[in-house]
Design a protein that fits this description.
elongated; alpha/beta; binds 3-methyl-2-oxobutanoic acid; amino-acid biosynthesis; 2 domains; 19% strand; transferase; leucine biosynthesis; Double Stranded RNA Binding Domain; binds acetyl coenzyme *A; TIM Barrel; eight-stranded parallel β-barrel; binds magnesium ion; four-stranded mixed beta sheet; manganese
């Protein structure tokens, strides 16, 4: 048996069948090009008879990609097959994928045909498709709920009719791994009885699997079928597809790669795909963007948290040796690397690691002070802890005496329904007891307040604007959020801001108040105090603290 597993990607056909997903021809071409770079073996480009748009999409893909087979779906009738062929005939390697259901429930209620009639339609469809191309795939829809002996009969007859790939779909995600293994084994036995086994053993006829995820078993079932002899897996990027989706391409590929040892031990040889795994993340993100189907953060392989570590014990392990908590190299999948994310569960090792990565070397005593302050003031307070908040705590610990500004008073208007803009007037006291007063307007009260504070202190607040910095005074807002601590209207507003200056220095500020505008003002002034203290004393402090670690 061959060790090669063929990856049949159906993102553009079954994936597009996800409720709410509709791709334009251009978007389909963009995804097809990404799939070609990913090096899938077959792209199922669509179901051409379904609509003129689907036809155009398949045709455009057939004309665009070169190093990959292009498949088109067709029911078991001549019109569907003719239309499929018209759409894919210019492809380098065109494949017609014809199908009909074989389960009694589908025969009785949907097709309203007998088993004999369906067998005949299947055989005729394969023979008809074969007139166009040698690459004919047949699928027995709802195979896993079909009578096993009848299914075996259909499989044998479609192979005799010329099908080179026979797909055994778990259309409704019903089977379980051991049962699916036994079903594929049963069909392999049927080939032996029909004297077709040599074709299968030599790879001239291939069993394919196509699993849906209704019970969350699509990937497990697909892998199980590979152990039983299937050599083509039908799957979609990010696992999108009908209902709960299809088997996720990235999970199958990485399971085969990561557990190659297991497949080799069990089969006597490894299972291999030709996928360029570094293309997985870019392709996943493209599919998510164009389909509008968000990737859940904890999604295996491609979720934002798949290689992120927030809890102290794990962070310590990963800092010492990535392999303690990671079974794959994120860079092999197309991520830039693993991420140590500061948060509620972070410990001292992660804090030390983060500070060192920003150039701060601290003695154990100083580290203990910063960690304690981080624990008290940030860990439980913020949901998302950018690294700048940690550095901010360090600056508070050692440079608080340098902080120059304090909000003395503020008047900020809030409007509803009036054709006017909110106005903010702020009074800030500096450490020479001079008052700095300014007012400004904004799109909302916090925007107005931030502009007024910046103006009072000689800065120009650009908001989150993408435009380039043009003056030393420019300040860009990188992150802003307000969380409520407590319940109801009496909860405490906690505001976090991260700002960036002309030189690319980012600092964070925190402010708390029962009035959320006041919390925002405090946060911005805190950030500006830290920024100015860092500018005047930051580098010197780095050297002083590092010297303490030597002595
Ligand atoms: C498991 C799967 O993913 S199968 C693929 C599912 N994908 C899609 O259905 C997406 C695109 N589908 C469509 O645009 C439409 O359903 C079309 C254009 C294909 C057909 O539209 P309509 O002609 O209006 O038929 P409709 O969808 O209502 O019903 C399906 C018909 O196909 C028949 N049919 C279903 N599967 C097959 C098959 N594999 N082979 C032959 N006939 C079939 C049904 O019995 C029914 O026939 P009837 O009209 O004689 O009762
Ligand atoms: C058309 C077939 C292969 C299908 O999508 C299914 O059975 O789920
Ligand atoms: Mg399907």
């Amino acid at each position: 048996m061959t060790s090669r597993v063929y990856i049949f990607d159906t993102t553009l056909r079954d994936g597009e069948q996800s409720p709410g997903v509709s791709l334009t021809v251009e978007e389909k071409k963009e995804i097809a090009r990404a799939l070609e770079r990913l090096k899938v073996d077959i792209i199922e480009a669509g179901f051409p008879v379904a609509s003129p748009g689907d036809f155009e999409g398949v045709k455009a893909i057939a004309e665009t990609v070169k190093d990959v087979q292009v498949a088109a779906l067709a029911r078991a009738n001549q019109k569907d097959i003719d239309t499929a062929w018209e759409a894919i005939k210019t492809a380098t390697a065109p494949r017609i994928h014809t199908f009909i259901a074989t389960s009694d429930i589908h025969l009785q209620y949907k097709l309203r045909k007998s088993r004999e009639e369906v067998l005949e339609l299947a055989v005729e469809a394969v023979k008809y498709a074969k007139k166009y191309t040698p690459l004919v795939e047949f699928s027995a829809e709802d195979a896993t709920r079909s009578d096993w002996d009848y299914l075996a009969q259909v499989v044998v007859e479609v192979i005799k009719a010329g099908a080179v790939t026979v797909n055994i779909p778990d259309t409704v995600g019903y089977t379980v791994p051991q049962e699916y293994y036994e079903l594929i084994s049963h069909l392999v036995e049927a080939l032996k009885k029909a004297d077709l086994y040599d074709l299968f053993a030599e790879g001239k006829v291939c069993f394919s699997v196509h699993c849906h995820n209704d019970l969350g078993l699509a990937v497990a079932n697909s892998l199980s079928a590979l152990l039983a002899g299937a050599r083509q897996v039908e799957c979609t990027v990010n696992g999108i597809g009908e209902r709960a989706g299809n088997a996720a391409l990235e999970e199958i590929v990485m399971a085969l790669k990561t557990r190659q040892d297991y497949f080799e031990k069990t089969l006597g040889y490894p299972l291999e795909t030709r996928i360029d795994t570094t293309q997985i993340v870019p392709t996943s993100q493209l599919v998510s963007k164009l389909t509008g189907m968000m990737i859940q953060p904890n999604k295996a392989i491609v979720g934002a948290n798949a290689f992120a570590h927030e809890s102290g014990i794990h962070q310590h392990g990963v800092i010492m040796h990535r392999g303690t908590y990671e079974i794959m190299d994120p860079q092999e999948i197309g991520w830039t690397g693993s991420a140590i994310v500061l948060g509620k569960h972070s410990g001292r090792h992660a804090v030390k690691f983060k500070l060192e990565s920003r150039g701060w070397k601290l003695s154990p005593e100083d580290l203990a002070k910063v960690f304690e302050r981080f624990r008290q003031e940030v860990k439980d307070v913020l949901r998302t802890v950018h690294d700048e908040y940690l550095e901010g705590v360090l600056l508070d610990e050692f440079l608080e005496d340098e902080y120059r500004y304090q909000v003395q008073a503020a008047y900020v208007s809030s409007l509803y329904g009036a054709p006017l803009k909110p106005l903010a007037q702020v009074e800030i006291l500096d450490n020479k007891k001079d008052k700095r007063v300014a007012f400004d307007v904004g799109v909302g009260s916090i925007d107005a307040a931030f502009k007024a504070v910046a103006k009072a202190l000689g800065y120009n607040f650009m908001g989150t604007a993408e435009k380039d910095f043009s003056s030393e005074k420019d300040l860009r807002l990188v992150d802003f959020h307000i969380d409520a601590v407590g319940k109801g209207t009496e909860s405490l507003g906690v505001c976090g801001v991260v700002i960036e200056d002309f030189h690319g220095k980012r600092v964070a500020g925190l402010g708390k108040d029962y009035d959320i505008v006041a919390a925002g003002l405090k946060a911005l002034v805190n950030a500006l105090n830290r920024l100015e203290a860092y500018r005047s004393k930051g580098e010197e402090l780095k050297r002083t603290l590092a010297q303490k670690t030597n002595g």
